Amino acid sequence: MLKIITALLLAAVATIVHGINIEESGYDREFQANNQDGLKNASNNVLCKKDQHIIENQTDLNVLSNECSTVDGSITFQNYVEPHINLGNIKSINGDFLVEENNLVVSVQGDSLQKIGGTFKLYDLTSLNAVSFPRLHDLNVVHWRVVPILSSVVWDNNIDLIKSLIISDSSLTSLKGFDKIEKLETLNINNNRYLESIDTNIKYISKQLSVSANADDLILQMPQLIWANNLTIRDTKEINLEGLQYVNQSLEFIENKVDTLQLSELKSVGGTLGIIENRHLSKLDFNNLSQISGGLMIANNNAIEKIDFFKSLKLIGGAIQFKGNIRDTDFPSLRLVKGSAVIESSSDELDCSKWVTPNAGSSIIRGGKIECEAKGKKSSASVRQDGTVLDRTTSDSSEEKETNGSTTTGTNLLLLTLAILGTFRLIV
Ligand SMILES: *[C@@H]1O[C@H](CO)[C@@H](O)[C@H](O)[C@H]1NC(C)=O
Ligand SMILES: *[C@@H]1O[C@H](CO)[C@@H](O)[C@H](O)[C@H]1NC(C)=O
Ligand SMILES: *[C@@H]1O[C@H](CO)[C@@H](O)[C@H](O)[C@H]1NC(C)=O
Ligand SMILES: *[C@@H]1O[C@H](CO)[C@@H](O)[C@H](O)[C@H]1NC(C)=O
Ligand SMILES: *[C@@H]1O[C@H](CO)[C@@H](O)[C@H](O)[C@H]1NC(C)=O
Ligand SMILES: *[C@@H]1O[C@H](CO)[C@@H](O)[C@H](O)[C@H]1NC(C)=O
């Protein structure tokens, strides 16, 4: 179910109902006279079997809807110059339903419509404010973009089928339900500036889950999600992914306003795990996570002072990059990092020797380079693939600057930059 709650809802629906005035053409009356018992057997009718219907006005649409309860092909609206689109008796569209680039259409409705078998596309419709298909429960790909005043959407409370849902630049305020839907290919919800809640029980997302640039106080509730292929969450106030167990590719949390990230069920990440610029984030739990096949990047989260929430993490397949006000790091189970490690902390409490001078003699970092800087004091080392530490150096860049910065520090900075760039390439 996609249910949009706004004060405007009832008013909008009432407007639609009263606003539509379908004129009967001579053709329609004749057709109805021949068809008193209801609709013809749609599958026998040539019109209903056409691949493509280009609709320019409601009269065209009435001809189609009076003739066909099932439309085999696609319906496209072109040069449509009326404010309302009403699908009348049409129950099922097996192809696409496409309305694009129109600034006159205010509403789209169909009280009988149950199915759109292809793509349901609403693109660049600057006046559209309401979509009403109260019986619609069988969908495939829903892709809406640039529908800036669309605030009311009504469809069946129990959607049976839907494959992908992509909504951007709408005025929707909430997105809920899909209670019968376990799996989606893509859920991509972005730039809906009034969207304050996303609440679903979806369990699997096989291609992409992406949420970004919606309302500042967006609350994302997907507690049943077990598995996602690739997942990016940005600009969100609360994130509930408490059941998430596997991510096949990357998992990224960027510029969120959350203070908590509780992913205590997460077991593996197939790509990079990035936790970046979440300024209020201080409570994290990734304690079941045992493997990250890509890199681990934790950067510019002002409130994260200790990275000690990866109690089971054994293997990092890429590089490590930590940046921020980090006082301590603790990875009790970590045995192998295949890439480099670059750690840059503004705190002078961070003990870089943990990384640069490993107790066991050989380092868990195998990617060639370890750089650790704590408040200007920098330690670095190269490591061989077997973990042997070579050329360990420690320098204090603040002292160097005081004596003579131009040559030594300049070169060091260049080397550091190259090292970071090199590492970065490994991560991405
Ligand atoms: C409609 O026509 C198809 C194909 O001729 C036929 O298989 C079907 O039984 C008909 N349905 C009805 C309700 O008459
Ligand atoms: C509706 O559009 C069709 C072309 O698809 C055109 O022939 C017809 O005259 C239009 N009818 C009205 C009432 O505008
Ligand atoms: C994963 O998502 C990110 C962010 O949306 C995107 O840049 C990247 O291309 C995606 N990767 C794959 C393999 O789809
Ligand atoms: C993603 O990972 C899960 C669990 O490890 C696995 O069952 C699934 O086949 C993977 N999917 C893809 C597309 O790689
Ligand atoms: C790991 O997950 C299991 C259930 O899958 C749970 O019982 C356990 O408490 C979790 N461990 C941690 C450290 O969170
Ligand atoms: C720094 O060293 C360079 C080259 O050794 C020298 O030319 C320059 O005058 C020195 N600058 C300062 C401020 O000592």
TrEMBL record:
Coiled coil: none annotated. Residues 383-396 have a biased composition (Polar residues). It is found in: Cell membrane. Keywords: Cell membrane, Glycoprotein, GPI-anchor, Lipoprotein, Membrane, Signal. One of its GO terms (cellular component) is cell surface. One of its GO terms (biological process) is ascospore wall assembly. It is a lipid-anchor; GPI-anchor. Residues 383-408 are annotated as: Disordered. Residues 1-19 form the signal peptide. Belongs to the SPS2 family. This is WGS project CCBQ000000000 data, contig MAT.
